[in-house]
Amino acid sequence: MRKRSYLLTTRGLGLIVMVLAVSAMAPRLDAAPGQDQSKDQLSVKTDSGGLDVANNANAKEVGLPVYPGATHVRDSDKDGGGLLFNLSRAGKPDVKFVVAKFETSDSIDQVRDFYKKKLGHKVTKFSVDAGDGGLSFEMRADKQHAKFVALKSTGGRTEIDLVRLEGFDISDTSVN
After folding, report:
1. Model's pTM, two decimal places?
2. For the chain, which residues make up each domain, given as ranges?
3. Which of 9, 38, 86, 108 is the most exposed place for a label (fewest CB within 10 A)?
4. Residue 112 in contact with residue 151, Cβ under 8 Å?
């Protein structure tokens, strides 16, 4: 049986989190919330919390290093370069889901070696997907805080996805 791909898992998890968050806040949105919208982002603030969603994110927001010389993917054909989702709720921890996408012409082996050296002892799990040759590094601080680096070789380029999840039970989340 083939393992689920990283992108399917990330998109699926992101969609589930967004649907849950929006549905949880929907009854409160009628209370004349402050809204700030643009083509690339949505921000809703209420007395009980807020929701920020954007179709782009950067490595600083993820909290992981960027491979030297890698370029931030902003092409709409490649998921817009990432996703930023932040749900704040009064009296509860924020829920965050951040994905920043990069690519380089360097080989997947070069990129893997960089992340092995840079992340070192922080890595709690290293995985290789035999189906598509993708690699992933997982760094879990606890059940509600994790970061991932996923690498995939496509068309002579290496795709790099930097992911941060926090604020909900992610103990069963996997990038493979």
Report:
1. 0.70
2. 6-166
3. 38
4. yes
